[in-house]
Design goal:
The structure is a single chain. The chain is mainly α and 203 residues long. It contains ten helices and four strands; from the N terminus they run αααααααααββαββ. It has helices spanning 3-22, 25-34, 38-53, 57-70, 78-88, 93-101, 111-116, 118-121, 132-150, 185-193; strands spanning 154-158, 178-183, 196-197, 200-201. Helix 3 runs antiparallel to helix 4 (57-70).
């Protein structure tokens, strides 16, 4: 069937349009020259592969930001851009929303973003009286965050005693007790690389 190849071509066309919109005239000329560099060529090829596979315009916009950043002569680090692309290849659109949700503290604002993505970001409590559907949703909620933690993009915060400011120790495990998740420096780097800020997408 020609449907799938044509669909992938349409996605690549959209990616090229978003990349052109992201780059100025000088950067477009710089990209044409950079394509002769095998390291940049590898980055562009991987970004196009992911763009063709993605059904999300937002993800293609994020990929175009990574490619544009690789063209920045002052910050050029092809190895960093390749690493960001490798991580993006392991993160779903939903998990990117979870990652972006860690950029601003829950009680510090970001109301529009949290309202838009409430079903993804709001914790799902699981108790002995929870229905099977609630238990399944709670398991998936935590699974997305555990996946991001395995990639070192999120980490658990230590729970601190409000009086002593020392970490609590879990009496059952003997380990430090942990609470909610927070962004790691690598997680913040990925968000910056794809153009995501507390205000949304940075063109």
């Amino acid at each position: 069937s020609a449907f799938i190849p044509n669909q992938r071509l349409d996605r690549l066309v959209k990616f090229a349009e978003q990349l052109n919109a992201r780059l100025g005239t000088v950067e477009q000329q710089r990209m044409a020259a950079a394509l002769g560099n095998p390291e940049f060529g590898e980055i562009a090829e991987e970004a196009m592969r992911q763009a063709a596979a993605s059904i999300s315009d937002e993800r293609r916009k994020q990929l175009s930001s990574v490619v544009a950043e690789a063209l920045d002569e002052e910050r050029r680090a092809f190895a960093d851009s390749r690493q960001v692309l490798r991580l993006l290849g392991q993160i779903s659109d939903l998990q990117m929303i979870v990652l972006r949700g860690g950029l601003v503290a829950s009680f510090g604002g970001d109301d529009a973003f949290r309202k838009k993505h409430d079903i993804v970001l709001a914790p799902v409590p699981a108790t002995l009286g929870s229905s099977q559907d609630e238990l399944d949703r709670a398991s998936l909620w935590d699974a997305h965050r555990q996946h991001l933690a395995r990639l070192d993009l999120l980490r658990r915060k230590l729970r601190l005693d409000s009086r002593t400011r020392q970490p609590f120790v879990d009496p059952l495990t003997g380990d430090f007790a942990t609470g909610s998740y927070e962004l790691t420096p690598l997680g913040r780097l990925v968000l910056r690389s794809v153009g995501l800020t507390a205000d949304g997408f940075t063109p």
